């Protein structure tokens, strides 16, 4: 009685509250590298939050959804992503569910 069921990942993600900064902490430094030298656009695959979306000729960076996992600092084969720690008080907030 009253036993709590394990939460699904979706439920856990629901408990993640975003407090997005107004300035991106993620910058794709050279758009030409993405366009002409990175056919795989692997950032659109390794980012768990789907922050990177290729839009025909440019990379859209939906930084508000970033989970701050840090993968893009090492995942981009061209070191083309500048990742700065979000300013204090911003970024992701985890709540114990
Ligand atoms: S992996 Fe790096 S170089 Fe390739 S598309 Fe993404 S940001 Fe651009
Ligand atoms: S830090 Fe992680 S979640 Fe954020 S953009 Fe990079 S890969 Fe995606």
From TrEMBL:
TM helices/strands, residue ranges: none
SUPFAM superfamilies per the UniProt record, alphabetical: 4Fe-4S ferredoxins
Residue ranges of every copy of the 4Fe-4S ferredoxin-type domain listed in the record: 57-86
Signal keyword on record: no
Keywords: Electron transport, Iron, Iron-sulfur, Metal-binding, Nitrogen fixation, Transport
Keyword Kinase assigned: no
Lineage: superkingdom: Bacteria
A Pfam family reported for this protein in Swiss-Prot or TrEMBL: Fer4_ETF_QO
Family: To ferredoxins from P.putida and C.tartarivorum, ferredoxin I from A.vinelandii, ferredoxin II from D.desulfuricans.
Entry function: Could be a 3Fe-4S cluster-containing protein.
Name of the molecule in the record: Ferredoxin-like protein
């Amino acid at each position: 009685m009253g036993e709590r069921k394990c939460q699904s990942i979706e439920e856990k993600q629901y408990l993640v509250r975003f407090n997005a900064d107004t300035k991106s902490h993620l910058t794709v430094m050279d758009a030409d590298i993405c366009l002409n030298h990175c056919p795989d656009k692997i950032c659109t695959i390794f980012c768990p939050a789907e922050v990177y979306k290729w839009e025909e000729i440019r990379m859209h960076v939906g930084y508000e959804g970033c989970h701050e996992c840090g993968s893009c600092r090492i995942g981009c084969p061209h070191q083309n992503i500048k990742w700065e720690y979000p300013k204090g008080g911003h970024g992701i907030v985890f709540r114990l569910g």
